[in-house]
Amino acid sequence: WHWPIVVLFRMTVGIDQASTILLAASLMLAVSSSSYHLVEQPFRRVAKRSFYPILAGTISVSLAISFLAVIPQIQRGIIYQGRPQQWSDWQPAMDYPYVGGSRITFEDCDLLSGSIVPSAIPVRCQSVDDPAHSRPRLLLIGDSHAYSSWGMGAYEESHGPFTFAPLTHDGCNIAGEASDSCTSYWRTTRSLAGGMGKNDVVLLSVFWALKTGHISEEARKTVLDLASITASRQVALIVEAPGPQFPRSASTCSPEWFRTDFSGCVIPARAFEERRAGVMSFLNELSAAFPNVRVWDPTKFICDGQTCATFKSGKPLFRDHHHFSFFGARSLGPPFVQFLETNIHSRSPASPADSGIGGRETKRTRERPVQ
Question: Tell me: the pLDDT tens digits for 91-103?
Fold first, then answer.
């Protein structure tokens, strides 16, 4: 009984104070003792008399419990005890088309472990069927963090100059610690980036491990390869900076009548900045060495300078510890469009000769090497 009680307390009043810990422990003992005397012992006595009725009863109870457990997931309004919410704010259904009538769905454009990685961007993962590329393209690549930014990319497609083409892979750590399909995926992203046109943009969004503050050699190599490939094609590469990472899932931070503890739902912005300082230093050095690289930092639009929160005005900005919710991603749409207008349209990516890539090395790249 200890696990359901711990989960219940963690989601309601918390279990990090002496009083709540003592209360939880007392409840564990009381429930365990009651279930022993009122359920287990009578069951043992009856079991000696008849096996099959008990088996049938056990199966019936198990099915009933399973049914009740599934109901809140399918029809949250039946026995759901929380406040009414717009569930699509968290994450759309898997068959939800982000653009148009049927294009860009999770099932088509977000790969899973073991998936066959396509060598080209599937047509259904492009917002428009435009073989001539009359409009510049925004290619979104990365892991599940890139998938959580689909809402932002879809907003740009309808309000900005770029068509939208995401091809992401869940669970593909940029550090290289993943499945064979992930190895194939990161190899393919290099090919996809190399096939982009001069006015196109590649957006890289991945999970950065901030606990250690260390960037693996594999992660550095992947980012540097993408920067070099896009520079040679005079394509802009946008790397998304690390976003807030919370000790508590946003799904347990919604304001509810039964919830009194919200610790971990809001973190100090300064502490977060200190945790990501190493990654930010690497990205800043990257953008200095490669003039075609821009760093998109959504944090300034998520945090208020003092704190970073999982919710804003009663709406979820995140759907768990660190992935943007659909509402959060869409809310980043307007500033992202402005970012593109300011940083992409006004500055054309430099050629390899200008940036010291594949040509002469400039004073700028010698003074600020990427480490």
Answer: 998 899 999 778 9
Between CA 37 and CA 54 the distance in angstroms is 18
**Six-digit token pair at 265?**
């739902």
Give every strand in the sheet of 293-296, ordered side by side: 110-111, 163-169, 137-142, 201-205, 236-240, 293-296
Name the pTM for this structure: 0.77
Burial of 84 (C-beta count, 10 Å sphere; 0-12/13-18/19+) = exposed
Q: Which residues contact 352 (CB under 8 A, 6 or more apart)?
A: 231, 232, 358, 359
Dihedral Cα 201, 202, 203, 209, nearest 10 deg = -150
Three-state SS at 22: helix
The CA-CA-CA angle for residues 280, 303, 7, to 5°, reads 100
pLDDT digits (tens, 9 = 90+) for 246-303: 998 998 888 877 778 888 999 999 999 999 999 999 999 999 999 999 999 999 899 9
